[in-house]
Amino acid sequence: MIRILGTIFAGLLGLAFGSFLNVCLSRWPEGESVVKPRSHCRNCDHTLSWWENVPLVSWLALRGRCRRCGAWIGLRYPLVELAVAAIWTVPAWRLMTSVLNPTLPPALIYLETARTACVLAFFWFLVALAILDAEHLWLPDWITLPGIALGFMFDLSIVALPSIDGLDGVAVGLLPVALLSLLAIAAAAGLMLFIRFIYWLIRRREGLGLGDVKLMAMLTAWLGLRSALLAFILGIVLGASVALVLLAIPSARAGSERWSASKLPLGTFLCIGGVVSALWGQPIIATYLRWAGF
Fold it and tell me: HEC profile for 113-142?
């Protein structure tokens, strides 16, 4: 019962942080403060009452429209809140499953809780980057670059400090692991730069932004090279599937040259692949290795 309640609490917390993320997503591209002014309608500047600002519930109660001017609020608001809430419940469930073990020392429980909080923050930023790239084709450096550094330190914390699984990386050696992590990050970024260069040689125009390169490095810092490559493959497959769907829609491909020059948000697909890889990457990779006979 405690495990269920803890997971529900994480989901509700995810709704609240998803609501705050919606504010950020609306104001960051405009260069506005996320603190002031209070939440308001972007169409008529109507300041929202507290009951108009309850995550998910208010959107449903208002039927997705502003109470004053009737302007459409948009599906992005409930979807972001639901996405953060749903993603956060998985690490919370796993944490509650582990820490309820009565044999674990309190210090280890606190450490795993801190690590889970870092993972939740990582998912929050992935959702933010996915929406920013989908809406604005923008992956800001002030998210991806600190994300690389934080992911690198998170990786080292797993190696240097004990965990519930009994991993004690100090015996392995912190410096070699740090060097391997840096090499993995550089390899992932190098792969993206290579793809970018090959595309430019073939099409003589940019097909891959530097923001995608930094995002791939960030995924590698947090997930490791193997899981980041899985996220890359999942992102490419998802992006190609979306492109095929758009190709099948006549109105979307009206004017072949305009369609071929249109841009798809690769960063969005990479973020989705990153979430899937972070939550279920190890079983997916293990299943593939068994299927391939390794």
Answer: HHHHHHHHHHHHHHHHHHHHHHHHCCCCHH
